[in-house]
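Appendix B. Chain record.
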Amino acid sequence: MKEEAEAAVDAAKGVLQDLVVVVSLVRTLTDSFGSASDLYRKLKRKSKSDSHSSDDAKEDREKRRRRPGRKRRDSSSESDRTRGRSHHISWNVGSKKEDYSDSDEELICTSSSQVLAEYDRGYKRIGEGFARGDLVTQNQLQSQIIQLQRTLLSIHQDYMLSTYLTPSSSHSHLVRLIQTTRSARLASIQALHMQYQRMLPLEGPIMPDPYRTIPGAFPLSPHRHDSATRRRRSKSRGRSRSRSPDRAKVPGTITIQPYPHPNPAISPKPHPHGHKLFCVYARDLQDHSRLPLTDNYKPGGDNMCPFCHAHMPMRPGKAWEIIANGCNEDGTHKRRIFMVQNRFAVKCHREETGFACVLCARLRKSDTVCREVKALMEHLWKEHTVEELEKDDDIFELDD
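C-alpha cells predicted for this chain:
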C-alpha cells in the first residue's frame, strides 16, 4: 500500500512538472499583460478626471475672486479674451502629453503580441521541444510573471483601499506600471530568444578547439598563435627534409652559397598588444559566432574580461532596445524594434577600457571608438541603418 502511494505521488509530481512548460507560462504572461493594460486605462481615466476636477476648482476660485466690481469686469473684456487664448494654449499642451501617454499605452497593449510573436518564431522552427522549453527559460519566465503580478496587486490594493488618490500618486502608479511592464516584456523576449539559440541545430562542421596554453600562462594573441604554429610546422618540415636523402644533388656538381651580410639589420619585435582596435577575447567572439560568453558575464560573475580584465557594467540577460525607422516593400515607413544583447557589447570592448563599434569595423572605412556602453548604443541608434543592424548575429528584431 505504501509503495502504491509513493508511486502515485511520483506520478503526480511528473504531471506537475509537465504542466509547468513554456507554453503555459507564456499564456499566463500574456494574461498578465492584458490585466496591466486594463489597469493602465483605469489609472489614466482616474488621472484625467482628477486633473479636470482640479481645473474646475481653479476656475471657481477665479470666479469668486472676480465677482465684486461689475464695472471692472466689464472694462476688462480684453483681459478675459487673453485668458481664453492662454487657456486654449494650455489645452494644446495637455493634448501633447496625451499623445505621449498613448505611446505608453501602445507599449503595454502590444507587449503580449510581441512575446507571442517571439514564441511563434521559435515554435515554428523547433516544434514541441520549444513549447516544453528548458529549466532556465521556465525560471526566467516565472520570475517575470511574479514581479508583474506583484506590481499589479500592489497598485490594485492602493487603488481600491484609498478613498482619494492625488494626481501625484496616480502618476507614480502609472510610471511604476510602465517600467515593470517594459522590463517584463524585454526579459521575456530575451529568455525566449536565448532558448531559441540554445535549441537551434548545429549547422556545418563543429569549430575546432582554440589553442590551449600551459595552465597559469597568459593567453597568446591570434597573431602570435599563428606565427607559433607556422614556426613549429617549418621546424618539423626542416627535420623531415634533413632526415630524407637529398635527391636534388647530382654527383660532380658544386653549389656556391652567397656570403652572409656582415651586419644584418635586426627588425624590432612588434608589441604583442599594440595597435589593436579590439581585445583578444572580443576578437574571438567576433570570429566564432557560436562561442558563448564566459561565466564571468553570467549571474554571480564579476563582469571582468578573462584576457584584459576590463570591467563592463551590465546585468546578465539584459538587452538594449533600439527603435529604428525602416521602409516596407510598398515604400511606407515602419517602426522597427531591435534588441542588442550583452554579447555584442562584450565583443566590442577594447583592452582595459572603452569600446569600438564592430559594424563600423566591418562595413565602413573609418572606425568609431566610444568610452561607455551607453555611447555605443547611442551610436548604433543614430549612425547605423536597419540593413546594417540586421547583419549582426547578436542583434535581433522583434516581430510586430
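Further analysis of this model is presented in Appendix C.
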